[in-house]
């Protein structure tokens, strides 16, 4: 796999700013801090099995270019450096070291994935470099007591699993449940939340099938779940395998109540390739406004989002929820930088990331805000259940408080 710095058509990277040596007492270590720029590193899957997530890095780079064109942040420009790890943990380690030790970034922002970020979490905390807003809902990324420099972003997977379990128990108390899950931190996290949510009804699970992130297909697992007589299908996968599962279900003529994790519910990246007709009735969860929902056609949030994409990333798929997700997390990052004032030390960046109060970023669903504290590293802890109607998702029920129990 070629190693490349993804330059986002060059315009997302600001070059030429002169760096000067700066010293921070954070962790007793000196590091390079430019008086003219803020260096933001990123690691994403621009290739490999999770390549569909490449849009997250592209959106961030494009937005930082917009910030620079508008004059920067608190007098500084942003230099965004993003590398491909192909969703491979050993490669993630290599790229993190490159960003921290060679590029001397001030932070690593929105790196993709649970297994990949698990591989660098200890390193980032040893180096005392902010490891912020990971594109994962893994519960482990909200542990400030042991990993004070690492913070996730998405509603955590265990909470989503519990929400799905509560809905199954209410809607189909006599269900036979089949579970497909990725055999890593991500899949096991959702599975734990789901089993916890079932409580003493966990015996409702009649088939529990893992797969590896390098597997070519999950067809055999779907066949096994179907053969076990499952009437409910919990699809705890990444986009590639989610689309495969939807297609395989259709091929088998199997129509269970189908629950799909929010990380793989994209209309453009998953449901459309799988066939909308095959995805009808899928239940998932959301914290973002759906770009395909006519409810939001005159929404000022989307007017700003569309104007941004028109100018900086016109090739982005406007129907892809990942294009919304990448935008929202970048707005949250900008809020942190605004709160930094004139102090962009690593310590202050981390301090401000842990001091977000009711921040209502554009494109979050009504009633959902971003909140953190030094003891709460879960920025988004609310979600809404949604159901696909063959054309788009429709929300139902109340906004759910997805916070983990104390």
Question: What do these coordinates show?
Answer:
This protein is α/β, with parallel strands linked by helices. It has 2 domains: 26-155 and 299-375, Rossmann fold, CATH 3.40.50.2300; 158-286 and 384-401, Rossmann fold, CATH 3.40.50.2300. Helices cover 36% and strands 17% of the residues. It contains 13 helices and 12 strands. It has helices at 54-69, 89-102, 114-118, 121-127, 157-171, 185-198, 219-227, 239-252, 267-274, 276-279, 300-312, 321-339, 346-353; strands spanning 37-44, 77-84, 107-109, 131-134, 150-152, 177-182, 205-211, 232-236, 257-260, 283-286, 382-388, 393-401. A 5-stranded parallel sheet has the order 2-1-3-4-5, sandwiched between helices. Strands 7-6-8-9 form a 4-stranded parallel sheet, sandwiched between helices. A 3-stranded antiparallel sheet has the order 10-11-12, covered by helices on one side. A hairpin with a 4-residue loop joins β11 and β12 (393-401). α1 crosses α12, α5 runs parallel beside α6 (185-198) and α8 (239-252) packs parallel to α9 (267-274). It is globular and about 65 Å long. It starts with 36 loop residues before the first strand and ends in a 5-residue tail after the last strand. The model is unreliable at 1-32 (pLDDT under 50).
Produce a short descriptive summary.
The chain is of the alpha/beta class.
CATH domain class of the largest domain: Alpha Beta
How does the major sheet shape up? 5 strands, parallel
Number of domains: 2
Q: What is the average per-residue confidence, as pLDDT, rounded to a whole number?
A: 90
Number of helices: 13
Q: What is the string of helix and strand elements?
A: EHEHEHHEEHEHEHEHEHHEHHHEE
The value of Rg in angstroms is: 21 Å
**How many beta-strand elements?**
12
Second rung of CATH, namely the architecture of the largest domain: 3-Layer(aba) Sandwich
CATH superfamily of the largest domain: Response regulator
Instruction: Specify the helix fraction band.
Output: 25-40%
Measured by DSSP, the beta-strand proportion falls in: 15-25%
Strand order of the largest sheet: 2-1-3-4-5
Structural class: alpha/beta
Q: How far is the first residue's CA from the last residue's CA?
A: 43 Å
Morphology: globular
Low-confidence stretches: 1-32
